[in-house]
Design a protein that fits this description.
The structure holds 2 protein chains of 2 kinds. By secondary structure, chain A is an all-alpha fold. Chain A has helices at 6-34, 39-56, 62-76, 81-95, 104-122, 132-147, 152-169, 193-208. The chains are: A mainly alpha, B alpha/beta.
C-alpha cells in the first residue's frame, strides 16, 4: 500500500535532486542548442537547495513540505524554470492542504492544479515546445489509469511513460515560447530541456511514491 | 573542444567575486548587498524620488550594475550568468529604494526576467505596500514579433532608456509619468545584433554554439543563443547594412528624423572595429536622410567574451535629447557630473 506522506514526498524530491544532478550536463547541453546553456546548472542549484531545506526542516504535512520546496525553487533557480517549477510545487502543495489520506484521485487533481499554475504563469499552449508538452499527456495518462482502477504507483508509471513520449515529440516542434522561440524554424530538431526535466520529475515520482 | 580560458577562480563564484570587485572599485557611487546580490546607489533611497530598479542575468557588464548612480538606476539585481535574478532579490531592492514615490521596474523581455519581476512586483505590493510599475523593453528586430512567440528581446534600447528615464526621475517626475516615458522610449527604439564568435558560460565550460571561422551569426541576442541566420563572413559595410536595414524597415524613421545612434560591442570586439562600424552605420543613415543627433560607441550591453556588435537607433525629440544630455555619474556612463 503506497502512501503520500512527508517521508515519501521527501524521498521523491531527494530522488529528483539526484536525477537532476546526474542529468545536469545533458540538460545544459539541450539548452545550449536552442537556449542559453544553463538549465541543468540552474535546476541543480535549486534542487540542492530543496534538499538542504528538507534536511533542515520539520514539516507538519505534505502541503508544508511542498510549499517550502516551491518557495526554495523560486528563490534559488532564476530564469523561467524557477517561477515555473516553484509555482508547480506551491500549487501542488496548496491543493493537498488539509488533505488526509491522499488517494490516487486526490493526488491527480493536485498535479493538475500544479500544472494549471504553470500555465497561468507561463501561458504556454500545447505544441509550443515547452514542459507543458510533457505535462499534458502525463496528466491525461494518469487520469486514464486511475479511471481504469490503477493505484497511485501504477498511475504515476503511466504518467511518466506518457511524459517521456511527450518529451520526445518536442524534438520536431518549432518553439513558440521562451528563448528557443527566438530561433524560429531552427529550434526544430532539438528536444526541449524543460520537457526533459519534467519527465525526470515524473519518473522520480513513479520511483519514490510506490 | 578547447579549454575554457577565463580569469576566474571557481565558476560557481564568478558573480559573487565580480560584485566584490564592483564595490571595491566604485564605492564612491555604489554599495553592494552581497547576500541578495544587489548593487545600490550609495545614497538610495532618495526621499520623494521614484526608485528605478533593473536587473537581469550577469555577463552583460557594465549593464546593469555599471548603470547604478546619479541620473540612472537606484538598484540593479544580479542574477547568475545569463540567468534572471530571483524575486527575493527584486523585492529586497524594491523595498530598499522606495523613497515614498514608488518604484519602476525596468525589465528586458525574456521569459525568466518577466516572470521573476512579475512575482516580485506582486509580492512587494502585497507585503510592503510599495507601488510598482514595470516597463518591458523589446527592441530586437531580429525576433519576429507575434502572439505565438515570447516576443522581441530587450537589448540595446535598455541602456538608452535607463539613462533617459533616470534623468527624468532625477527631475522629480512621478511614477506614472516615468512609466509612460519609458514605454515611449522603448516604442521608438530598435536594435539588431550579430556575432563573430560564440561565448562560454563559465559553469558550462564550452562555447554555447560552434561558429566556423568563415561564418557569422546574424540576429543574435545577448545570451550566446544562436541567431536567426548564419551567413558567410562579410566586409563591415555589408554587415552594417545587414543590421541597419531591418531596423529602418521596422520603424518609419523619416527624412531628417534625429536619432541617438548606438553601436554596442558584445564584449570581445575592440573599439577600433566598433568605430569602423559606427562610420559605416553613419553613412547608411546619411543616405536614408536620418540625422545622428547623439552617439554612443562601446561595450555597454555585452555577452561575455562574444565578438560582434549590435546597432540601436532611438528616434528622439528635444525632451529626450535634453534628458540624454543631463548629468550622469555611474561606472559605465559618466558625463556632466
Amino acid at each position: 500500500m503506497s502512501t503520500v506522506d512527508v517521508s515519501s514526498v521527501s524521498g521523491w524530491l531527494r530522488s529528483y535532486a539526484e536525477a537532476i544532478s546526474e542529468h545536469a550536463a545533458e540538460l545544459t547541453e539541450l539548452d545550449a542548442a536552442i537556449g542559453d546553456a544553463d538549465h541543468g546548472t540552474n535546476m541543480n542549484r535549486g534542487m540542492q537547495a530543496v534538499v538542504a531545506a528538507i534536511d533542515g526542516g520539520d514539516f507538519a504535512d505534505v502541503a508544508a513540505l511542498l510549499k517550502k520546496a516551491g518557495l526554495t525553487m523560486v528563490s534559488t533557480v532564476g530564469g523561467a524554470s524557477g517561477p515555473l517549477y516553484g509555482t508547480f510545487l506551491l500549487r501542488l502543495g496548496g491543493a493537498l492542504d488539509g488533505a488526509s489520506d491522499i488517494t490516487a484521485e486526490k493526488f491527480g487533481a493536485a498535479l493538475r492544479a500544479g500544472v494549471e499554475g504553470v500555465v497561468a504563469r507561463g501561458k504556454a499552449e500545447l505544441g509550443d515546445k515547452t514542459m507543458y508538452d510533457a505535462w499534458v499527456p502525463a496528466l491525461d495518462a494518469y487520469d486514464a489509469a486511475v479511471a481504469s482502477g490503477a493505484d497511485l504507483p501504477a498511475a504515476l508509471q503511466a504518467a511518466a511513460a506518457a511524459a517521456a513520449r511527450g518529451r520526445d515529440e518536442t524534438t520536431a516542434m518549432v518553439a513558440r515560447k521562451g528563448r528557443a522561440s527566438y530561433l524560429g524554424e531552427r529550434s526544430a530538431g532539438h528536444q526541449d530541456p524543460g520537457a526533459t526535466s519534467t519527465t525526470l520529475l515524473l519518473e522520480s515520482a513513479a520511483a519514490a511514491l510506490s | 573542444m578547447c579549454l575554457m580560458k577565463k580569469l576566474i577562480n571557481d565558476p560557481a563564484d564568478v558573480v559573487k567575486e565580480a560584485l566584490l570587485g564592483i564595490e571595491a572599485a566604485h564605492q564612491d557611487r555604489v554599495r553592494v548587498d552581497h547576500e541578495n546580490k544587489v548593487v545600490y546607489r550609495v545614497d538610495a533611497p532618495r526621499a520623494g524620488k521614484v526608485g528605478l530598479v533593473s536587473g537581469g542575468g550577469s555577463g552583460h557588464e557594465p549593464m546593469h550594475g555599471g548603470f547604478v548612480g546619479l541620473g540612472m538606476l537606484d538598484a540593479a539585481c544580479a542574477g547568475e550568468v545569463f540567468t534572471s535574478p530571483v524575486p527575493d532579490q527584486m523585492m529586497a531592492a524594491t523595498k530598499e529604494v522606495d523613497g515614498g514615490a514608488g518604484v519602476l521596474h525596468i525589465v528586458k523581455n525574456y521569459t525568466g526576467d518577466v516572470l521573476n519581476f512579475e512575482m516580485a512586483a506582486e509580492l512587494a505590493a502585497a507585503e510592503a505596500g510599495v507601488e510598482v510599475l514595470s516597463v518591458v523593453t523589446d527592441d530586437d528586430v531580429a525576433v519576429q514579433d507575434s502572439l505565438y512567440t515570447a516576443g522581441r528581446r530587450g537589448v540595446g534600447v535598455t541602456v538608452l532608456l535607463e539613462k533617459i528615464v533616470g534623468a527624468a526621475a532625477e527631475e522629480g517626475r512621478s511614477l506614472g509619468e516615468l512609466a509612460e516615458l519609458a514605454t515611449a522610449v522603448n516604442r521608438q527604439g530598435r536594435s539588431m545584433g550579430m556575432a563573430l564568435t560564440s561565448c562560454t558560460v563559465p559553469s558550462a565550460g564550452s562555447p554555447t554554439f560552434d561558429l566556423p571561422d568563415d561564418e557569422m551569426e546574424v540576429g543574435i541576442g545577448i545570451h550566446g543563443e544562436p541567431g536567426r541566420q548564419r551567413l558567410p563572413l562579410a566586409p563591415a559595410k555589408d554587415v552594417a547594412a545587414l543590421l541597419v536595414d531591418p531596423i529602418l524597415g521596422d520603424l518609419p524613421y523619416g527624412n531628417g528624423d534625429p536619432v541617438i545612434a548606438f553601436v554596442n560591442g558584445m564584449g570581445g570586439t575592440p573599439l577600433i572595429e566598433l568605430y569602423l562600424m559606427f562610420n559605416e552605420v553613419c553613412q547608411l543613415l546619411d543616405k536614408a536622410g536620418i540625422t545622428v543627433a547623439r552617439s554612443l560607441v562601446g561595450n555597454y550591453i555585452t555577452s561575455l567574451e562574444m565578438a560582434g556588435c549590435s546597432v540601436t537607433l532611438l528616434k528622439v525629440d528635444d525632451d529626450l535629447l535634453r534628458l540624454w544630455d543631463a548629468p550622469v555619474n555611474t561606472a559605465g556612463l559618466r558625463w556632466g557630473a
